[in-house]
Design goal:
By secondary structure, this protein is mainly α. It is 86% helix and 0% strand. It has one domain.
Length: 258
C-alpha cells in the first residue's frame, strides 16, 4: 500500500515537473525571433472571436438564473431586499462565475482543439518535419497558442461578465419588478474595482493552464487516432480540474491581498 502511494506520488510530481519545464520553454521562446504574427493572429481569432457566442450565451443565462434564484430567496427572507440584486449578481459574476465558466468552456472548446491539432501533427510526423526544417516546434506551435490564451481568456471573461450582469438585469426587470435604473445604480454603488480585477487576474492564470496543459498533451500523443482521442480527453479533464482547484487558491490569495 505504501509502495503504491509512493509510486503515485512520484508519478504526480514527475508530471508536474514536465508541465513546469514545458511552461518555462514556452515562455523562453516567446522572446526569440522570428515572430510569426500571422500564426498568432489566426490563433487569436480562433480562440477569442469564435468563442464569443458560446461564452456569451452561457453566461447570459447563468446571470438570469442567478438573479432569479437569489432574488426570490432575498424576497422570501426580507420583502423588498431584491432591489440589491444588481450588486449581488455583479460581484458573483465578475469574481467567480465569469472567469471560471469562461475558462471551463474554453477548456472544452479550445483546449480539445489544441490537443487534437498538435496530437494529429505528432502522430503523422509533421512535428518531426518541422524539426528537420530547423523550426522549433514549441516556438511554432506552443507560443502562439499560449499568447492567444493569455490575451483572450481575460478578454472573454470581461465580455461575458458584462453580458451576465445584463442577463441578471433582464430577470430583475421582468421577474422581480426592478427598473433598469435601480438595477444598474445598485451595480455602480456597491461594486468595487477589486471585484473586476480579481476575475481578470484569475482568468490570466486559467488561460495559462489551458494552453500549457492542452499543448503539452498534444506533444506527447502516441498511438495514432486512438492516441489523439485520448490526448484530447486528457487535456479537457486535466484543464477543467486544474481550473477549479487553482480557483480556490487564487481566491484565497486575492482575499488576503484585498
Amino acid at each position: 500500500m505504501i509502495l503504491s502511494f509512493l509510486k503515485k506520488s512520484n508519478h504526480f510530481f514527475e508530471g508536474f515537473g514536465n508541465y513546469a519545464i514545458f511552461f518555462k520553454e514556452t515562455v523562453r521562446w516567446i522572446f526569440k525571433p522570428p515572430f510569426d504574427l500571422k500564426n498568432l493572429m489566426q490563433n487569436l481569432l480562433e480562440i477569442g472571436y469564435k468563442s464569443i457566442p458560446v461564452t456569451s450565451i452561457t453566461i447570459f443565462f447563468t446571470g438570469m438564473v442567478m438573479a432569479l434564484q437569489i432574488g426570490n430567496a432575498m424576497e422570501a427572507q426580507m420583502p423588498g431586499s431584491s432591489i440589491y440584486i444588481g450588486s449581488a449578481v455583479t460581484i458573483a459574476m465578475f469574481r467567480e462565475l465569469a472567469p471560471v465558466l469562461t475558462a471551463l468552456l474554453l477548456a472544452g472548446r479550445v483546449g480539445s482543439a489544441i490537443a487534437a491539432q498538435i496530437g494529429t501533427m505528432k502522430v503523422t510526423e509533421q512535428i518531426d518535419a518541422l524539426i528537420t526544417l530547423s523550426a522549433n516546434p514549441i516556438q511554432y506551435l506552443s507560443v502562439p497558442r499560449f499568447i492567444s490564451c493569455v490575451i483572450m481568456t481575460p478578454s472573454l471573461t470581461v465580455i461575458s461578465g458584462f453580458i451576465g450582469v445584463l442577463g441578471g438585469g433582464v430577470i430583475g426587470y421582468f421577474g422581480l419588478g426592478i427598473s433598469p435604473e435601480q438595477y444598474f445604480s445598485n451595480v455602480v454603488k456597491y461594486t468595487t474595482a477589486m471585484d473586476f480585477l480579481s476575475g481578470i487576474i484569475k482568468s490570466v492564470f486559467f488561460g495559462i493552464e489551458i494552453s500549457i496543459i492542452s499543448t503539452y498533451e498534444g506533444f506527447k500523443t502516441t498511438g495514432g487516432a486512438e492516441g489523439v482521442g485520448q490526448s484530447t480527453i486528457t487535456a479537457v479533464v486535466k484543464s477543467s480540474m486544474v481550473i477549479l482547484i487553482s480557483d480556490y487558491f487564487l481566491t484565497y490569495l486575492l482575499q488576503l491581498v484585498g
